[in-house]
Every structure is written in C-alpha cells, then in structure tokens.
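Priority: medium. Attachment 1 of 2:
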C-alpha cells in the first residue's frame, strides 16, 4: 500500500510539474503575440477617435500620430515612450502613495493645419478597470469623440459604456464653463442632459460604472490641460 501511494503521489507530482512547464512555455511563446495584439488595439482606439478606421490607416499610425509623455506640471518627459505608460497601474500606486509622480501619455493628430489632442483615461467601474480615449479639439475645450472599454462590467448594464449610444453623447460636449474654468463632462441621471454641454446621460442600471466613468473624466482630463494650454501659446 505504501509503495502504491508513493507511486500515485509521485505520478501526480510529475504530471503537475509537466503541465506547469507546458503552460510556462506556452505563455513565453504567446507573449509577443499578446503584446502585439494589445498594441494594435490601442492604436486602433486612438485612430478611431479621429475618424481613421480603415485597415490601411492602422499601417500609417506613425504618420498620423505624434505621442508625448507629460508630467504633473504639464512638461514633456524625455526618453519615455507613451505606449510604455501603464496609466491604470500608475494611478493605483498614486492612491497608495500620494508622493508617486504620475505621467500621462498624450497623442496628437494633425490634419489640415489643425490639431486634435487624444487623451488617455483610466478608472474603475463596478467590477474592475474601465478606460478610454477622448479626442479634444485644439481649442482645449470641445470634445470631438470618445471611446470607452472595460474589463468585466455587466453585459447590458455597465458594459454599455463601449456602445455607440453611450459614446456618441460626448461629441461637442465642453469641458470648460463660460468663464474658462474646468468642469469636465459629467455622466448623470439628471433629466435632459442633452440640454447641458457638460453632461451626458448615465447608463440605465449601470450607476456605479457610470460614476466610475464620470470620476475618470474629471480626474484625468484636467491633468492634460496645462500642457494643452502651453501648446496653444506657442
């Protein structure tokens, strides 16, 4: 019986080690492909908010888009690539350690002599991370388009943040009030949000996710404004 048990445990251990090695090997082999797909998805999202959605546009990403990284004072950070910034992770570190210095990736599209600033956003919904990209006119006030996504929000509820119906509300919304002060765009359940240039309608049944998007917009948009305002003066 002892020998039998030893054999069973030994065999189980060997199988466990073999499976672990196989999974580790598969992860190593697949990692470059996963990173490439992640990069492509980010590039497609960035291009989509400036209306570049054709397959050939993706191949011209570097021709269309200039990227910079900015610090908390709105200054460009040298020798850091925008795509290397994990904004959600950095914000999590900031929440635990207020002295942590945030860096934000900013993408700039220029066509016909006009610039569009593409702001990367990161926040938290009901079940996990939410994120997005917001195209801001060179006036530093008018939203041209926004796209959002999530990791695990509820289908039919919070997951609606990445639908045309929700995202389409952001076109032509304003982030500054009449005095030029930052007010962001609020996702709200208030009636007649269409009549207010600073509000969009929340998702029915997705209150926490809607609040997460609203908080994300308020926290992140203002971070970019110092750099954008500096650029307008150049």
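Attachment 2 of 2:
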């Amino acid at each position: 019986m002892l020998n039998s048990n030893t054999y069973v445990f030994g065999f189980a251990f060997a199988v466990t080690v073999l499976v672990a090695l196989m999974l580790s090997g598969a992860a190593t082999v697949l990692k470059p492909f996963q990173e490439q797909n992640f990069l492509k998805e980010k590039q497609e999202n960035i291009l989509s908010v400036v209306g570049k959605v054709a397959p050939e546009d993706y191949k011209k990403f570097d021709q269309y888009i200039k990227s910079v990284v900015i610090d908390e004072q709105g200054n460009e950070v040298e020798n850091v690539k925008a795509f290397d910034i994990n904004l959600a992770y950095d914000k999590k570190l900031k929440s635990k350690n207020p002295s942590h210095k945030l860096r934000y990736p900013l993408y700039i599209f220029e066509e016909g002599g006009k610039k569009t600033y593409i702001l990367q956003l990161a926040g938290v919904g009901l079940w996990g991370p939410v994120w997005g990209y917001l195209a801001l006119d060179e006036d530093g006030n008018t939203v041209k388009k926004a796209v959002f996504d999530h990791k695990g929000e509820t289908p039919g509820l919070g997951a609606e943040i990445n639908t045309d119906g929700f995202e389409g509300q952001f076109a032509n919304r304003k982030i500054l009030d009449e005095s030029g002060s930052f007010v962001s765009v609020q996702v709200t359940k208030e009636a007649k949000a269409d009549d207010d240039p600073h509000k969009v309608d929340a998702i029915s049944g997705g209150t926490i996710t809607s609040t997460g998007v609203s908080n994300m917009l308020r926290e992140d948009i203002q971070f970019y404004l110092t750099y954008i305002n500096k650029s307008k003066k150049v």
